[in-house]
Amino acid sequence: MKEFLWGTATAATQIEGAYNEDGKGLTIWDGLTEGHIRYNENCRVACDHYHRYKEDVALMKEIGVNSYRFSVSWARIYPSGMDKINERGLKFYIDLVDELVKNGIEPLVTLYHWDMPIWLYDIGGFLNSKFPEYFEAYTKTLINALSDKVRYWITFNEPQCFVSGGYETGWLAPFHKESKCVIERITRNVMLAHGRAVDCIRKYAKTSARIGFAPTASLIMPKNNSEKEIKNAYDRTFDPSLGVGMGAWWSEPIVAGRIPENMKFLSEEDIKAIFRPLDFYAFNIYRPENARDFYYPGMTRSALGWEVLPECVYWASRFYHERYNLPILVSENGFADNDVVSSDGKVHDTHRSYYIEKHIEQVKMAISEGIPVIGYQYWSLIDNFEWAMGYEPRFGLIYVDYRTQKRTLKDSAYLYKRLIGQIKYSERASVNVQKGVEVD
Ligand code: FCB
Q1: From the CA of 43, how far away is ligand 1's center (Å)?
Q2: Close Cβ partners of 422 (under 8 Å, ≥ 6 residues apart)
Q3: What are the residue numbers of the active site?
Q4: pLDDT at 38 over 70
Q5: Which end of the chain is more exposed for a tag (fewer CB within 10 A), N or C?
Q6: How far apart are CA 243 and CA 430, in angstroms?
Q7: Does domain 5-439 have CATH number 3.20.20.80?
Q8: Peptide bond before 380: cis, by omega within 30 degrees of 0?
Q9: C-beta of 70 in contact with ligand 1 (< 6 A)
Q10: How would DSSP label each residue in 220-232?
Q11: Which helix or strand (DSSP H or E) is residue 320 part of?
């Protein structure tokens, strides 16, 4: 029996801080954000996780998770170019992985979560024809350093967001608004980099690696249970004509080796370099794309205005499994609020507790129907720097007072602790989905 991956997720830029310590280079989130972040906030200190990682791992242990998804900051490893590794930066991740493993927590490593080094941006970033080669070299360094203990690897987090948000609509760093042709060139280079990274992991990993990438689920959720409506929602979910912000744009070439009609900028030769068998299909999901169709007055929303529709986890698991026939990892799912510490010293985050309970019910439903969901990673372990929104939206199971860096477990952390252990996952399920998985 293998355990269900109960965990929490984070990303380097959002929690680490220590933005220029121990030889780290700047990223596009350190250097280009002037005038782009709410209240002029920045990620220089964030949760100071770089110095407090042991305390944070101890808190994970207290919550009872058996896995933890985090990302590596490329600029910590290669601060000024690909010619020289910064050993002190690398050591941070080696130590973090050791600490996790020592505490019985399986590390899930994301190679790229939006924080391109400035030196790379300055030479064209994703548009540089050497980008795939550089990404492969960076991957190899991490594989050499971490793959004796790390088995789960995720190449890119939400390419939809960092390409569309970063280069089309311009709400994420580097805040560009580029033409369609530029978006296509970036898409191709990111995909080629993914392919190279997968080959590199398979070739050099010291333990048997499990590889995926983590797009946004981009789900069109059916409005009722009729067969016609379900089919309609499924077809729209995978309609690549919806563009770079949708799942199909990324997943059809990467996971299925198919070139959709509107992606003819990819050649069959490209597909040979991009399409690689993956071990799981990870997705991040907060709400369906068509959330507005479910509007009712007073509907539950997060502090960011995101509609709470827990069924989206079930439908995304079902649709994405049906389409790509891989085990599913819910690699992010979470709720933002403006939490406060009450006078009893506790954080009574009722809405988040509700959110978690309801979404996990949907995971269980998917599993009970034989869909092999292998894990659930709550976003996020800890309140953190929410990109252009700064520190106001709090997603964490752990409250952070940014003036003192004091951490407080919220009520939802205790609820999560109680829920963990409810799902047991059998390894056979990933091999034969018909057999399903065991649900208590
Ligand atoms: C996702 C990102 C993650 C975090 C959550 C709220 O899109 O991957 O870093 O910002 O949203």
Answers
A1: 15
A2: 360, 364, 439, 440
A3: 158, 332
A4: yes
A5: C
A6: 30
A7: yes
A8: yes
A9: no
A10: ---SSS-HHHHHH
A11: helix 311-324
Q: Is 59 in the pocket of ligand 1 (CB under 6 A)?
A: no
pLDDT in tens, 69-84: 999 999 999 999 999 9
Q: Residue 108: which of 213, 245, 262, 203 has the closest Cα?
A: 213
For ligand 1, mutation pick of 332, 352, 378, 383 (most atoms within 8 Å of CB): 332
Angstrom distance (rounded) from CA 399 to CA 3: 28
Query: ∠185-190-196 over CA atoms, to 5°?
Result: 125
User: What residue owns the CA closest to ligand 1's atom 2?
Assistant: 158
Ligand 1 within 6 A of CB of 386: yes
The verdict on the CB of residue 284 being under 6 Å from ligand 1 is: yes
Burial of 84 (0-12, 13-18, 19+ CB in 10 A): exposed
Neighbours of 258 (CB within 10 A): 15
C-alpha 268 – ligand 1 centre gap (Å): 32
Q: Is the CB of 11 under 6 A from ligand 1?
A: yes
| Residue 80 CB burial class (10 angstroms; 0-12, 13-18, ≥19) | middle
CB 238 within 8 A of CB 323: yes
Q: How far apart are CA 319 and CA 186, in angstroms?
A: 27
CA 366 to centroid of ligand 1, rounded, Å: 23
d(CA 218, CA 353): 24
What is the tens place of the pLDDT at every residue in 246-285? Answer: 888 999 999 999 999 999 999 999 999 999 999 999 999 9
Position of tokens 């752990």? 398
Q: Whose CA is nearest to atom 4 of ligand 1?
A: 386
Report CA(418)–ligand 1 centroid distance (Å): 25
DSSP state at residue 26? P
Average pLDDT, the chain: 95
Q: Which sequence spans correspond to the domains of the chain? A: 5-439
User: Which neighbouring-strand residues pair with 107?
Assistant: 68
- Helix spans in 64-214 (H): 74-77, 87-102, 118-122, 131-146, 159, 166-167, 180-204
128-160: per-residue pLDDT in tens? 999 999 999 999 999 999 999 999 999 999 999
383 lines ligand 1 (CB under 6 A): no
Own/partner pairs for 50-55, CB < 8 Å, 24+ apart? 50/16, 50/17, 50/18, 50/21, 50/92, 51/17, 51/18, 52/405, 53/92, 53/95, 53/96, 53/99, 54/99, 55/407
Distance 32 CA to ligand 1 centre (A): 19
